[in-house]
Amino acid sequence: MTLVKFDPANKNNGSLLRGFNDVFDSIFNDTFFNDRILARVPAANISETENNYHVELAAPGLKKEDFKISLDRQLLSISVEQRTENTNEGKNYSKREFSYNSFVRSFTLPESANAEHIEAAYADGILKIDIAKREEAKQVRRQIEIK
């Protein structure tokens, strides 16, 4: 058996024809193509405290009016649909781009979540959602005496 080492610096590594991979590199590394092929779903942090569940969604560059938060049974959905249309009348364009960004993130709430007490706030590019726990789900803490 022969081991073949892969060298990422060598572009012709594993290629049957010289320059064959360069064709695909030029297509897939084009910024116009990359901007539209990448999924732009914001990252989320989920944490829990004694009384609440906390969801933080990193979504910079948006306004609080861009968000739509809905609850259907135990499914919390956060969606954004943002359209930007650049129009300048009186110019002949050879290229004109429309911008359309949207995403949906959904989270299943645990049975211990109180759907009646959900609060959301958007500041500094982070959407923060606080979900209260039901009273019976809150952890009871007490000292246990050693005998």
UniProtKB/TrEMBL annotation:
Alphabetical list of CDD domains matching this protein: ACD_sHsps-like
Gene3D superfamilies: 2.60.40.790
Lineage top rank: taxon: Bacteria
Pfam families cross-referenced by the UniProt entry: HSP20 (PF00011)
InterPro entries assigned: A-crystallin/Hsp20_dom, HSP20-like_chaperone, Small_HSP
Domain SHSP: 34-147
Similarity field: Belongs to the small heat shock protein (HSP20) family.
Protein name, UniProt field: Heat-shock protein
Species of the source: Mucilaginibacter pedocola
